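Suppose you are handed a protein chain with no further information: no name, no annotation, nothing but its sequence. What can you learn? This example shows the usual starting point.
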Amino acid sequence: MTTINDSGPPRRGPLRGRKRPIASGAAGCLICSVALGALVTSHPQSAAALSSTVTTADLLGIDHNTGSYLGGAGGVIVHHTASGDVLDNLPDRVNVNAILNVGRDALGHDEVYAASDHGALYYQAGGNAWCRLNVPPAVFAENLHAIASLGSGRVEVVGTDGLIMELTGAAGCGATFIVDARVPGSPALNAIRHLANGVVVAAGDAGTMVVGHADSTIHHLLFSPVVSGTLANLYGLAPSASGVIAVGAGGAVIDGFLTVDPQTTLPGLVTTVLTGIPTVAGLRDAASDLGTLVPTVVAVGDGGTILRSVDGGLTWSVTASGTTANLHGVQLTDVNGGLAVGAAGTLVQISFSGSPAPSPSPTATATSTPTASPSGTPTSTPNPTSTPSPTGSPTSTP
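A reasonable first move is to predict its three-dimensional structure. Written in structure tokens, the prediction is:
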């Protein structure tokens, strides 16, 4: 057994770069056991004892509803179960940037969507073959980055050129999606989440944030731009007790407070850019445990970075992960912990044990900015010099 002290931020690696695992196991995969807020213990085990991810492809995303599905480069999809991991790859070798279990069908089978490059969107139920869904022709030119849902009948997908599209009608292989927003040349959207009362928030490059609500007249989502206070690329969102936490390039963390205009009853988001975040590594995803009054929030990113907040995202501390592989996705599966995934099939098992690390990061008292008036499309933001969008052409081989 090797004990690793939590002694500062890990080394950064290239964006979604391939790295060889630092511990051997079935299929050469890495399993790290992480005790957040305490010492971190890495458990080298024999291949028979490992909960292997059965692939060395870069894992680019994790199911944010259940944590039971993982998406990877080259069409790789892993069904992560208590009895072991099962490969269930797409028929096409496209990067699976996001995957989501949105609920169960009438027979009790998981309904799963996978979002990929080149406008490829897939659906599966009950372990049957993946079917590629028909999408509007304009979507073929876009890379799809993230999926959100509020049950099987409410599914939204975001991607490049500010794309937001949503499911209309029933789920299934014949499902129909419509485009709510798309402005060629506008910043890519990299993350989307459902909040309370049907509100949807999306975030992306150049600090882009939008907040959406269901319009009762036209029966689909309308989005308003949000002034985020940063030009950093934003890659991950996690619900918080008061709204949402956004994370991104250079260790950027944004606290978003959900508001409602008393006259129009339209939702808004008041944002604060937090300072004193104890890392400059790119943060690629975030997840929260809303089962407590003050939720725990975890963010993961480049160089094996893991940050933890025990006060709903206001202050943060670094926890060593036991790996220097880039981590691309995280999900808290219950109040006891969760799972992070990353480069070269890396899988990190996270457990909440011990006390939080001392001296959490201070926060700034930043000037918050309310949302702009609603519009059908997000407003383009000036193009800064910042970290590129994390998706690209598929290059990895499962």
